[in-house]
Amino acid sequence: MSDIFEILLAANFWAAAIRIATPLIFGVLGALVCERAGVLNLGIEGIFTAGAMAGWMAVWLGAGLWGGVAVAALAGAFFGLIHAILTVPLGLSQHVSGIGVTLFATSVSYFAYRTALPDVSSPPRIVAFQPVDIPLLSDLPFVGPAFFQQTPMTFLAFALVALTAFVLYRTPLGLAIRAVGDDPSAVEAQGLSVYGLRIGAVVAGSAMMALGGAFLTMSAFDAFFFGMVNGRGWICIALTVFASWRPGKALIGALLFGAFDAFQVRLQTEVGAFIPSQVFLMLPYLLSIAALVMVARKADYPRALLTPYFRGQR
Amino acid sequence: MIRLEPRETATTTRLIAAPVIAAVAALLLAAIPIATTGTSVFEAYALMARGAFGSVFAFSEMLTRATPLILTGLAAAVAFRAKLWNIGGEGQLYAGALAAAAIGSGAIDQPPIVMIPLVIMAGALAGGMVMLGPTLLKSKLGVDEVVTTLLLNFVILLFVQMMLEGPMKDPMGMGWPQSEPIIDAAVLPKLVARMRIHGGLIMAFAAALFVYVLLKRTVWGFEIRAVGENARAARHAGIPVTATFIRVGLLSGALAGLAGVGEVAGLKGYLTADLSPGFGYAGIVVAMLAALSPIGVVFAALFIASVFVGADSMSRAAGVSNYLADLIVAMALICVLISSLFVRFKVRFVGRATGEAA
Description:
The complex is a heterodimer of chains A (about 325) and B (about 350).
Chain A: H1 2-8, H2 11-36, H3 44-60, H4 65-87, H5 94-116, H6 143-147, H7 152-170, H8 172-182, H9 184-189, H10 194-220, H11 232-242, H12 247-271, H13 277-296
Helix pairs in contact in A: 1-12, 2-7, 2-10, 2-11, 2-12, 3-4, 3-5, 3-10, 3-11, 4-5, 4-10, 7-8, 7-12, 8-10, 11-12, 11-13, 12-13
Chain B: E1 2-6, H1 12-29, H2 31-36, H3 41-53, H4 56-81, H5 89-104, H6 112-141, H7 145-165, H8 200-217, H9 219-229, H10 231-236, H11 241-268, H12 279-289, H13 294-318, H14 323-344, E2 345-349, H15 352-357
Antiparallel strand pairs in B: 1-2
């Protein structure tokens, strides 16, 4: 037992939890924005991969780190636009289109990486974002090293939570986005464009998702690997339901998840001799399923989620 | 503005033409990435065609590759018919493969007439059982099955890795994480001497025929289609919706499980954690290309298999990354989605004013 407390009281544990949570924060926020507008985006796993690849490659080709972040966001927006066109004006199945976008974005990323680097066995490295010390705050005992010695992308993720919450709940645009996911015909009656709002939300949400992928190659690691996204996108889809489509709860869910993941890695070194490592690796997925089951009954889905809207049709 | 007008009837010609056009469109679009590598597009496609159809050996390889795709394609098609979004074909395939390896590796030693049906049934059962949880959670608690089936893919693959590094590890495997080879009596017979093509293909054809008859000729098939078209109306009409979901889930999982049986008992002879290069996900594309028709699944699987086998062989000859195959498959899925629109709707481009007036 004392070992467990030791883990929980170490600043580096909380620092790791926040690091693990960061890509999930981007991903959940992106998924949440799409779903609030009524569009499920299962392209997320592929958009993560595309963001990771595009951001890394831009930097590798000579762009600055923030330039790489911008390229990643653009890549995400591009694949989001494909998903938006297929599902919003064309009204095709959101499930199948999303899987298609995941397959497409993943294979484009892998193909581009392999074409650019045909015979490289160890992936080339870039100089990634380094942790920044925030004056005063990072000198605080415990809290400083845990929360304020992160890379800039982590701070961007936290800022994006506040921004998304502000836009969704405090601006007319946010009101329109929430309305278009609940009752699109009411939105059209007000003279707003259902298609425009939904396409815009999916494109913006997909750009956010791609930042989660960019964090992997440009902040957490300094290279691109095949399979590096490894299901993080799907976890975000589960976390979105857990968060009841609210940015604040999304942040809490991602942090809880990060804490759990960091905890299991540390626990594994303690009891790894008795329990196979795969058991620990399974836990995040089982935990996501458990979270879905817990909130299933009271899940307050955006009412028009998955339902295509055609102008002039009820 | 674009306006979609539903068509009264979807003619058979259109139903068949749509996926063919989509497949051709995907191949044409793939010329762009091929061109970026500096390879001649014509040469690349010629190499691909030769790689898939150019010799008896190539053709046999293509059919071997199509075998699991037919089964995972059927698994997706039958579930999607009922609007049960089973995205877990990959995990169910591994569950079937795990069961086949466990039953077939000598724990039970019987003649082939007993062993082969036993291995097949064990794999189907294991695949089906994986779908039981998500289906029950969907129908009893309203938990979205897309996410649960997807997440289970990871859980099952990790479980397979755990078994292969633990209890099921082959002590003679030179340290590789693989299961003990299955006994000769449990091996699906080869169809052609010295080729890899195996009895799993017969199993896949039989499964396609079975699903066809089930959907077209039986009450269960009618219920599946009714639930897929409108679950609420089906419930009002007295169709047991929950029971139908459970049946469809079990059948879908079982079909994907059979794909795993074929790979273990027909092709490899033992289980590894890299048994499937994403057959479960490719099955979704197969099902969509086939417009969810069981017979169409066979043709769609042959197409996808020829893309994979052809691209592999082209990749070796022309040095184009074999991720091109995945790229073509993904583009085929997107193209078929778009082309399905032309089957169901007339697409009219109209002026904004008339669009508003309508």
